[in-house]
Design a protein that fits this description.
The chain is mostly beta strands. It has 2 domains: 114 residues, Immunoglobulin-like, CATH 2.60.40; 90 residues, Sandwich (Immunoglobulin-like). Helices cover 0% and strands 44% of the residues. The chain has no helices and 14 strands. The chain has a 3-stranded antiparallel β-sheet with strand order 1-2-6, with no helix packed on it. A 3-stranded antiparallel β-sheet has the order 5-4-7, with no helix packed on it. It starts with a strand and ends with a strand.
C-alpha cells in the first residue's frame, strides 16, 4: 500500500532545518513524500523505488534544459516488517538556468502529481529478523508556532527486540488538515538512537504541523 503527495518550496530563503543541515534552497523545487505499509506476514526487503513527476494530463514533466523527464533514480527502501508503515521521500533538484545549458531546470508549476513505483521486492520469513530492533516513535509534539520558518518537533524513539539500532534512517511526513500527504523531509539520523530527540523542520505550505509524523527504521547497508 502506498500513500503519496507533493509540495513546492516557494521561498528562496526557506531553510531545510535539521533535516538538511540548514542548507539554503537556491531555487523553487518540488518535494514529495510517501508512506509504504507492509500488509503481509513476511518482511519486505530489497524493494526498489523510483518516482516520476507528472503534469496535469498525467504525462512526464521534462527538464527545460535537457528535455529529459524528471525522475528520482531507483533506490532501495528499508526493510519493512509485517504491519509496519514507513515514510520516505525526496525532491527533484532544480537549478537556475544561469548555471548552464545542461543544468537540471524545470517549471515547478508544471508538476501536478507524482507516481511512486515499487519493484523487485523479496519477501523473507520473519524469524530471519528476530534480532532486529523494532523502533517506535511516541510522544511526538510540534511547536505551536514557527520560528524563522522552522517548527520545533520533539519525539521519543523506543524499540522492542533484542538488537540495537545499527543503521537508523528517519523521515518526517507532512499531511494537510484533510490527511492528504503533502511532502516529507529526511532527518539527520546519525544520532537517532533510543531516547528523546528534538529537530527543526521547514513544514511546507498546505501542511498542518499538528499532523506531522516521524518514522525511524533500520535501513539496509
Amino acid at each position: 500500500m502506498v500513500d503519496q503527495g507533493l509540495t513546492v518550496t516557494a521561498k528562496k530563503d526557506l531553510r531545510r532545518g535539521d533535516g538538511w543541515w540548514g542548507l539554503p534552497i537556491d531555487t523553487d523545487e518540488v518535494w514529495y513524500g510517501f508512506e509504504v505499509t507492509n500488509t503481509c506476514d513476511k518482511v519486505a526487503t530489497d524493494t526498489s523505488v523510483s518516482v516520476d513527476a507528472l503534469d496535469a494530463s498525467g504525462k512526464p514533466v521534462l527538464y527545460t534544459t535537457t528535455y529529459k523527464p524528471l525522475g528520482y533514480a531507483p533506490n532501495v527502501l528499508p526493510n519493512v516488517l509485517p504491519g509496519q508503515t514507513v515514510g520516505y521521500g525526496g525532491y527533484f533538484v532544480n537549478r537556475p538556468t544561469s548555471d548552464g545549458a545542461t543544468a537540471p531546470h524545470y517549471d515547478v508549476d508544471a508538476v501536478k502529481s507524482v507516481k511512486v513505483h515499487l519493484s523487485n521486492t523479496t519477501f523473507r520469513n520473519v524469524d530471519q529478523y528476530d534480532k532486529w530492533a523494532r523502533p517506535k516513535v511516541t510522544n511526538l509534539s510540534v511547536s505551536s508556532r514557527a520560528t524563522k520558518g522552522l517548527w520545533t518537533v520533539s519525539f521519543t524513539v523506543s524499540a522492542t527486540g533484542t538488537g540495537p539500532l545499527h543503521h537508523p534512517a528517519a523521515f518526517a511526513l507532512f499531511r494537510s488538515r484533510s490527511g492528504a500527504v503533502v511532502s516529507s523531509q529526511g532527518l539527520n539520523a546519525d544520532g537517532f538512537r533510543l531516547g528523546r530527540h528534538t529537530v527543526r523542520l521547514a513544514v511546507p505550505a498546505g501542511a498542518d504541523p499538528a499532523r506531522t509524523t516521524v518514522s525511524v527504521y533500520e535501513h539496509p547497508r
